[in-house]
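**User:** My hope is that you can spare some time for a protein that puzzles me. I have put the entry right below:
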Amino acid sequence: MLTREMLRLGLPELCTCRVRLRQLRAEDYPALERILSDPLVIQYVNRIRKPVYARMRRLVAQIKISADSLDSLHFAVEWHRRNTEKSNLHDEFHERISSPLLGIVSFQQWNERTGEAQLGYILDRPFWGKGLATEVVGEMLKFGFESLKLNRIESRCQENNQASMRVLMKNKMRLLRTIGAYDPSGEVPSILVFSMTQGDYA
């Protein structure tokens, strides 16, 4: 079982057949800022009604703080070059193989004592709809339950984010509850809360 003290030395690298998950580094932040400056990307990340740039800056600051304290475990998502180069993927994948950052995936609000964490992920828009998110979420669930020995993993998505709902359901996460919109104007969407326990995973 990996503990917080052990992870202070660095996060492990995790690999799927196409991507590698590694510890987020300082040089990743410019690419992360670019990804989160896309209005279509950040609209699904939080429900704050502020301009895109302000939302991006706030989120990046939160990621930096939580990464430094290990309250959250943030992994950069990049191509797993060895396997990608051997595959017969669409030309777009080969053209973008040198991309420094495809997105990030995180265990947020990690509580080592209770064994709970919230799984979140963000992918750059060119990589939507290619099955990468499903791969990444599956690998994080494996890491969470097998290496961190978590008791429960929760993940949230906006009710209008159908693609994210499908990713979570493909990974056998169950819809637990809905958090209603707090804005009476109706412009702020409700949040769907998905969950998986150690028993579900096993």
Notes: The CA atoms of residues 15 and 21 lie 6 Å apart. The chain has one domain: 4-150. Confidence is low (pLDDT under 50) at residues 84-88. The first strand starts at residue 14 and ends at 15.
